[in-house]
Amino acid sequence: MSETITLAIPSKGRLMEETERRLAAAGYKVARIGGARRYRGEVEGCPEIEIAFLSASEISRELGLGRVHVGVTGLDLIQETVPAWQEKIGRILPLGFGHADVVIAVPELWIDVATMEDLDDVAAGFLQRHGRRLRIATKYWNLTQRFLESHGIALYRIVESLGATEGAPAGGMADVIVDITSTGSTLKANHLKILDDGVILRSEACLVMSRRAPWSDATRRVAETLVDAVAQELNRNPAAEAAGSR
Hints:
Its EC number is 2.4.2.17. The protein is of the alpha/beta class.
């Protein structure tokens, strides 16, 4: 068994920049191998860690499959894309950036609908009034189904969202949406409102260990040392975490 671990980090954008900044502050400076367009990297002075640059969604999938040992991805992606994620995902360290909420939102014109209980009433009467079930547009099938089940709502149909989910009600493709939002401004621009108890998940970027990866005592020590170092740096410098949340 190889005595190196694979650490997967986002390949571009602010998530990549914040991840590399957090790792560097904890003593793990990341460098790409072969230039900025390559998708492999290393940690200076740590030959036991190999870097893979992937999209956040790819990272969650690879963690679930055990093909990477540690990765940085969104909590929403872990809970949405990894089946039985509690069994496949180990330690989860929130990193204090990439904050966003997965929410259920309805048209502002539904003035009598403010809670999930109200939505249950709407769903129950929708088939009789309109001859079809309530349609919910989302990319988050699993989170949506679990959340609605927890509220006892069964009379609905999920519509797969392939584009801008928030535009689905205005476009006549759905009645309600489940989407991820940071500020809520896009929802407001599309005349949608979040239900009072409609926050499904408060997500952020997390440093995550896989249970399914091929661990040895040595590789587990490497990974735990890495996660501990990042956690200690966040505790020493909470201002950096707060800055990342904005």
